[in-house]
Specification:
The complex is a heterodimer of chains A (287) and B (158).
Chain A (H helix, E strand, L loop, with lengths): L1 E4 L3 H10 L4 E4 L5 H7 L6 E4 L9 E4 L2 E5 L4 H5 L2 H6 L1 H7 L5 H4 L4 H7 L7 H6 L3 E6 L2 E6 L4 E3 L2 E2 L6 E7 L6 E8 L10 E9 L5 E9 L6 E2 L1 H7 L6 H14 L10 H22 L5
Parallel strand pairs in A: 1-3, 2-3
Antiparallel strand pairs in A: 4-5, 5-10, 6-7, 6-10, 8-9, 11-12, 12-13, 13-14
Chain B lengths: L3 E7 L2 E7 L5 H8 L18 E4 L2 E4 L12 E3 L12 H8 L9 H14 L5 H7 L11 H15 L2
Parallel strand pairs in B: 1-5
Antiparallel strand pairs in B: 1-2, 3-4, 3-5
Helix pairs in contact in B: 2-5
The chains are: A alpha+beta (287), B alpha+beta (158).
Chain lengths: 287, 158
C-alpha cells in the first residue's frame, strides 16, 4: 500500500485515476481505517486529502455555507452560522459515533461511504446540498441526492474526489430537523431516520417542504409526495397523518436483526412527522 | 512497503519516526516510541482505550495513520502528570477507586481532560455523553463519573 498526502485536489484526482488497483480516499478515516483493519479491503493506494488548501474550512458563500470535505463533524457543530441556518444538517452529522469519532469523521466521508443509514446524508439531501467534485477532467457540481446509488456505492467515477458540499442560502422563516431511531441513546446505527426541511409563509403555513428518509431503502430516499402534502398546511394532525402514510408508501426497507420491514416502515413515517414539527417550530411557525 | 519519515510533537517534545503506510498512530506510539499508555482494545474506534488528542481534538489513535501525524501536536496519557505530580484527574481516580483492571483508564483520563479543558463544570449527563466512546467493563462507570466530577470541582477551586 502507498500513502499519498495530496497537495491539491488535482493531484489527488490524477493519482487516484492513474492507480489501476483499489484506492481509498482518506479524510477522517473513521470508516477507511476500520475497513483496513478488517482486512476486507487492501487498497494499493490511499490518498490523504487533508493537506489540500481550504479543504478543512467552512466558508460563507452566496448567503449559504461551503463545508470542506475534511471538516470534522465536531468542528461543524461548533460553527454558529451553520448551526443557525441548517440545524438539522448539523444534528444529523453530530449523531455519528463517539466524541473521538466526531473529532475526525466528516459529512462527505459519511456520504461517500454509501450507507443508506448514514446520519449525515438525509439532512444534506433535504437541504438540497450540492457536492463539488474534482476529477481527472476538471470540476463539476452535483446534487448530493444524486451521489448514493446503493449500499456502499456512489455515482462518482474513478479518480473523482468530493472537495466540499454547499449548503444554500435560505429565507428567514425556514429550518430543518433530523431524527433517527436506535435502540439505545448513543453510538449506534439508524434503524430508520428522517430529515425534514421547511420554508414557511408569513401566515405560518408551509411554503415548501422536503422530506428525506434514511435506512429504509438501498439509498437515502426523497419522499416527494410527503413533502407536497405538507405544503399549504400548518402541519395539523390530519396533514401529518397523510404525510406519514406517504413516507410509509415509499419506504422499501430490509428485514434484519435490527428492525423488521413493518417496524422500519412505520418508524420512518413517525420520525418524519416529529422532525417536521421540530423544523416547523425552529422556523418560527406557531399553530 | 516503503517506510514514511514523520516529524511530530508529542506532549510538547519533538519526535521523528519511520512508519509503514498502513501503520496506525497507536502502533507507532506503542511499538516504535515506547509510549504504551494508550491501549489497543478493539482497534476499530469503538472502545476509546487508545484515546489521545491530535491538534487539540480527542481522537482514537487506532483510527489515525502514523503518516497523518506529520506536523501535528499530539498529547497522550504520558503527558498528563507534571513530573511526579499527578494530575487531579489521576489522583481522584486512585482516591475514588475509579478503576479496576486499568486498561480503559488512560483513554478515559485523556478523554475526561479534553472535556474539562473545554467545559470545566459539566453536568453528569454531559460527562456521560462525552465518555460514551470510552468503554469500561469493570467499574460500571459510576465511580468514574464521581472521580471526574471531584477532579473538576478541585480544578475549579470549589
Amino acid at each position: 500500500m502507498r500513502y499519498l498526502a495530496a497537495k491539491t485536489a488535482g493531484e489527488a484526482a490524477a493519482a487516484l485515476a492513474a492507480e489501476p488497483g483499489l484506492t481509498r480516499i482518506l479524510a477522517g478515516g473513521t470508516d477507511v481505517l476500520v475497513q483496513l483493519k478488517s482486512g476486507l479491503v487492501e487498497p494499493a493506494l490511499i490518498v490523504d486529502i487533508k493537506q489540500i488548501p481550504g479543504i478543512a474550512e467552512i466558508v460563507a458563500e452566496d448567503g449559504g455555507y461551503r463545508i470542506g470535505a475534511a471538516v470534522p463533524n465536531a468542528v461543524l457543530g461548533e460553527h454558529a452560522g451553520v448551526v443557525a441556518m441548517w440545524p438539522g444538517v448539523v444534528e444529523g452529522a453530530n449523531l455519528i459515533g463517539s466524541t473521538q469519532v466526531q473529532g475526525r469523521c466528516t459529512m462527505v466521508g459519511n456520504l461517500c461511504n454509501g450507507s443508506p443509514a448514514g446520519d449525515a446524508v438525509p439532512g444534506l439531501i433535504a437541504a438540497n446540498a450540492v457536492a463539488r467534485i474534482v476529477g481527472p477532467n476538471g470540476q463539476r457540481d452535483l446534487p448530493v441526492a444524486d451521489i448514493p446509488t446503493g449500499p456502499g456505492k456512489t455515482s462518482l467515477a474513478k479518480g473523482e474526489v468530493i472537495t466540499s458540499v454547499f449548503l444554500p442560502a435560505r429565507p428567514a422563516r425556514a429550518s430543518d430537523a433530523y431524527l433517527r431511531f436506535i435502540p439505545r441513546t448513543e453510538m449506534d446505527i439508524a434503524v430508520a431516520s428522517a430529515a425534514v426541511s421547511l420554508e414557511l409563509n408569513a401566515d405560518d403555513t408551509v411554503k415548501a417542504a422536503r422530506v428525506v428518509l434514511g435506512a429504509v431503502a438501498p439509498t437515502v430516499i426523497v419522499a416527494e409526495e410527503a413533502g407536497r402534502i405538507c405544503v399549504g398546511s400548518k402541519l395539523d394532525e390530519a396533514t401529518l397523518a397523510r404525510m406519514a402514510a406517504a413516507c410509509e408508501a415509499v419506504a422499501k426497507p430490509i428485514d434484519d436483526k435490527r428492525g423488521t420491514v413493518a417496524f422500519r416502515t412505520k418508524t420512518a413515517g413517525t420520525l418524519a412527522k416529529r422532525a417536521a414539527l421540530t423544523a416547523y417550530t425552529r422556523a418560527g411557525g406557531t399553530k | 512497503m516503503k517506510s514514511i519519515p514523520v516529524s511530530t510533537t508529542i506532549n510538547g517534545d519533538p519526535y521523528e519516526f519511520l512508519c509503514a503506510p498502513d501503520e496506525t498512530l497507536l502502533d507507532v506510539l506503542r511499538n516504535r516510541l515506547g509510549l504504551t499508555g494508550a491501549k489497543e482494545g478493539c482497534g476499530t474506534g469503538d472502545c476509546g482505550a487508545c484515546s489521545v488528542t491530535l491538534n487539540g481534538r480527542l481522537v482514537c489513535s487506532c483510527l489515525v495513520l502514523g503518516a497523518e501525524a506529520g506536523g501535528a501536536e499530539i498529547t497522550t496519557i504520558e503527558g498528563m502528570a507534571d513530573g511526579d505530580e499527578l494530575h487531579p484527574l489521576q489522583r481522584h481516580f486512585i482516591d475514588g477507586a475509579a478503576l479496576q483492571c486499568g486498561v480503559c483508564t488512560p483513554g478515559i483520563l485523556v478523554a475526561a481532560k479534553a472535556l474539562l479543558d473545554k467545559n470545566p463544570d459539566p453536568t453528569d449527563e454531559e460527562l456521560r455523553y462525552w465518555l460514551a466512546g470510552n468503554l469500561c467493563r469493570c467499574t460500571g462507570y459510576d465511580k468514574i463519573i464521581r472521580a471526574v466530577q471531584a477532579a473538576a470541582a478541585e480544578m475549579r477551586g470549589a
